[in-house]
Design a protein that fits this description.
Helix content: 55-70%
Order of helices and strands: HHHH
Distance between the termini: 58 Å
Low-confidence stretches: 47-77
Mean pLDDT: 75
Shape: elongated
Strand content: under 5%
Largest sheet: none
């Protein structure tokens, strides 16, 4: 009986540690996504001429007098060749994946991102 209680306590401690690790991983994923969003906003013109960030970095940049979002710069356009993708940084590749509507790209390596975008 004592051995069963000890195993039960160990299992409970392991489950608690696993839950904590899962929450930490989810938080890290959200933070990485937020950082990617800020970089994309900055790259796509989300900063004002004074260098201050726009009111909402998640909001796409808009051209004056237009209700439609401004076109994304060339770094988000579809590539012609895989070689074009290899010249980009991981952040730029993630921006292209986001613009292409892909999911699950935030933890991919550069080569995996290139493979995802070229398919």
């Amino acid at each position: 009986a004592a051995e069963a209680e000890q195993r039960k306590a160990e299992a409970k401690a392991l489950k608690k540690a696993a839950d904590k690790a899962e929450r930490a991983a989810a938080k890290a994923e959200r933070e990485a996504q937020d950082a990617d969003d800020r970089v994309v906003a900055e790259i796509s013109g989300g900063a004002t001429s004074e260098g201050e960030p726009s009111a909402d970095p998640a909001e796409p940049a808009k051209t004056p007098g237009s209700a439609e979002p401004a076109e994304m710069p060339a770094l988000v356009a579809e590539p012609a060749l895989v070689g074009d993708l290899e010249a980009l940084t991981v952040v730029q590749l993630r921006a292209r994946a986001r613009a292409a509507g892909r999911t699950g790209y935030s933890r991919l390596s550069k080569s995996q991102l290139i493979s995802l975008l070229s398919s």
